[in-house]
Write a sequence for this structure.
């Protein structure tokens, strides 16, 4: 089995377990839950087939839906995020060159680029998730503020997770 496949399978399992066992049991401020499991879709290789990307997103969201009993809300939101991912990458990084299997991580995009990329996609996910959950435009501004706060906390959680688990390159000897 290819190293990229094994790495992504392990990442998927660990992120889903971390989300279900740790993050879903702790709510910040009563309703803020950082959805760090989105990192699985964010870090898939840049050359991932679009159909495979959508299928993996559906399976990821469905896994969370199964444990949270949310009837497909996460699946719909994550598929929407995965659908927007190639466009967001082209919008922010039109001249980005990558090798086969390369991930859009901190080393490739830089901290500012990774924050733009991840916040945009997380915001799209949170926007659809929240409005599907509420299923009303009655309290639009309140729901939008909830989306923004959740997107910020999720992006912060994703950044912390990436910084903790990205191996540091050794410094060159002078």
């Amino acid at each position: 089995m290819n190293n990229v496949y094994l790495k992504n399978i392990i990442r998927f399992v660990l992120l889903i377990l971390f989300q279900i066992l740790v993050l879903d049991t702790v709510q910040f401020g009563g309703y803020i839950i950082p959805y760090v499991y989105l990192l699985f879709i964010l870090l898939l290789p840049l050359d991932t087939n679009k159909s495979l990307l959508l299928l993996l997103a559906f399976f990821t969201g469905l896994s969370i839906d199964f444990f949270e009993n949310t009837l497909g809300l996460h699946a719909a939101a994550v598929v929407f995020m995965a659908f927007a991912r190639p466009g967001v990458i082209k919008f922010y990084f039109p001249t980005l060159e990558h090798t086969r299997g390369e991930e859009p991580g901190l080393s490739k995009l830089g901290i500012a680029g990774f924050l733009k990329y991840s916040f945009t996609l997380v915001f799209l996910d949170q926007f659809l998730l929240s409005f599907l959950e509420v299923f009303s435009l009655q309290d639009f501004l309140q729901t939008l503020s909830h989306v923004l706060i959740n997107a910020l906390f999720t992006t912060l959680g994703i950044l912390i997770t990436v910084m903790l688990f990205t191996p540091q390159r050794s410094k060159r000897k002078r």
User: Anything to note?
Assistant: Helices lie at 3-21, 39-42, 50-68, 73-92, 106-134, 140-165.
